[in-house]
Amino acid sequence: MKRYVILISGRGSNMGSLLDAGLPGACAAVISNRPDAAGLASAAGRGIATAVIDHRGFASRAEFDIALAAGIERHAPDLVLLAGFMRILTDDFVRRFEGRLLNIHPSLLPLFPGIKTHAQALAAGVRIHGCSVHFVTPALDGGPIIAQAAVPVQADDDEASLGRRVLVEEHLLYPRVARWFLEGRLRLVDGRAQLEGETAVGGALHVPLTEPKGN
Ligand code: GAR
User: Fold this and answer.
1) Using only C-alpha atoms, what is the Rg of the chain?
2) 68-81: pLDDT as tens digits
3) What is the pTM of this model?
4) Residue 188 Cα to ligand 1 middle (Å)
């Protein structure tokens, strides 16, 4: 059975959706860079091994990433899932795990990389927002997109309401993509996401808009 490790920094709701999805693989560990991440307790409550590698204990980003890589490798995972992991990773780390390192980002990339993505979307006035799952490469939030889910932006949205609507889609999208990978159907090939057995347009997949409630 394939093994995966999840990296978190906080709440861990995406981690929860992965752990509860009945994925065809075993979660070997949940690792946090923050000792106070709420997701650690919910992982432990599901019987998953947890570890903290606190970035504040390291003199440099490179040293932290070396320790993090070692903490991951001891579980010999086939797949590493960033789920609200809020540290920028060094190129060396990313290259070491390239092709087996996925991230979920709360925007329709390449729009709105970085942080505060819902505020960025509202400020830009886009009518459609969403989330993306992508392979991680050294370009921040710039790796090959695997799948995206879109939500409408409503006239009375604020950051919180828009974020909640996107999060519902995140919780559906990430387990779906993780399943593809664990089934051996999803690969990074020549810098593009390649998926067997699905209609793929240019290596990216499209998920239709969820019907707004009440319509
Ligand atoms: C999620 O919205 C995730 O997409 C985002 O942080 C949130 C974590 O929530 N990730 C990033 O912004 C990565 N740059 P969670 O801890 O409840 O999953």
Assistant:
1) 17
2) 999 999 999 999 99
3) 0.93
4) 23
